[in-house]
Amino acid sequence: MLDGLTYDDSEAPAIALVPQGTSWDAVHDHIKIAHDFLLVAAADGFAGAYWTGTEMVVLDGLGTDQDEAMDEFREQLAQRGEL
């Protein structure tokens, strides 16, 4: 489990921000247990990750601005019926 995550709960759903440098294995392990929506910081921008109940889905290309990436992630989750 990832410790010390920062959550943006200004809108539903709450999304945790994963610090840059966190491995995808650590993200997978956390999401499989906690079922959080995660915004993962990478050198080239942000990706969103969530658990479907059977697997982790990663939505790449959410942009380089954290606030815009949060909005885009929420929008994509809504379009996919995950909210």
Adjacency order of strands in the biggest sheet: 1-2-3-4-5
Q: Beta-sheet strand percentage? A: 25-35%
The overall pLDDT, averaged over residues, is 93
* Count of separate DSSP helical elements: 2
Basic shape? globular
Q: Can you offer a commentary on this structure?
A:
The protein is an alpha+beta fold and 83 residues long. The chain has one domain. The chain has 2 helices and 5 strands; from the N terminus they run E-E-H-E-E-E-H. It has a 5-stranded mixed beta sheet. The N and C termini lie far apart (23 Å).
Give the gist of this structure.
With 83 residues, the protein is an alpha+beta fold.
Provide tags for this entry.
single chain; 83 residues; 29% strand
Task: Note the topology.
Elements (H helix, E strand, L loop, with lengths): L5 E3 L6 E4 L5 H11 L2 E6 L2 E7 L4 E4 L6 H14 L4
Parallel strand pairs: 2-3
Antiparallel strand pairs: 1-2, 3-4, 4-5
